């Protein structure tokens, strides 16, 4: 991930956390939709894969454990994160695993 991606992530997280405190449910869903769009813009690569793994470790688990709980092959997750698998299903899985890892979207306690 480039510095621009990291800056984008931080800006989105700050905006979301600030806005969600003052929103009703409908408005919150709209903001969360923007998070999904931001996640879709994150470029795949080895750095993203490493950050996702680190995100799970910070949460006290592992990427492998998440894959087993979710019924997803770890090789597929790795492929979608580094970009060797990049079709529509891969993009959906990438967004889900990024969100679940806590590296974007406000799921981590350290943001």
Task: Describe the protein's topology.
Elements: H1 3-20, H2 25-40, H3 46-58, H4 63-70, H5 74-82, H6 88-101
Could you explain how this protein is built, in words?
The chain has one domain. The protein contains six helices and no strands. It has helices at residues 3-20, 25-40, 46-58, 63-70, 74-82, 88-101.
Radius of gyration: 14 Å
* N-to-C SSE string, H for helix and E for strand: HHHHHH
Number of domains: 1
Mean of pLDDT: 80
Helix content: over 70%
Strand content: under 5%
From the helix content, strand content and strand pairing, which structural class follows?
mainly alpha
Q: How many angstroms separate the termini? A: 18 Å
Contiguous low-pLDDT stretches (5 residues minimum) are 106-111
Biggest beta sheet summary: none
Q: Please, how many helices?
A: 6
Could you say which overall geometry the principal axes of the C-alpha atoms support? globular
Number of extended strands: 0
Brief summary:
70% of the residues lie in helices and 0% in strands.
What labels describe this entry?
mainly alpha; single chain; globular; 70% helix; 111 residues; 6 helices; 0% strand
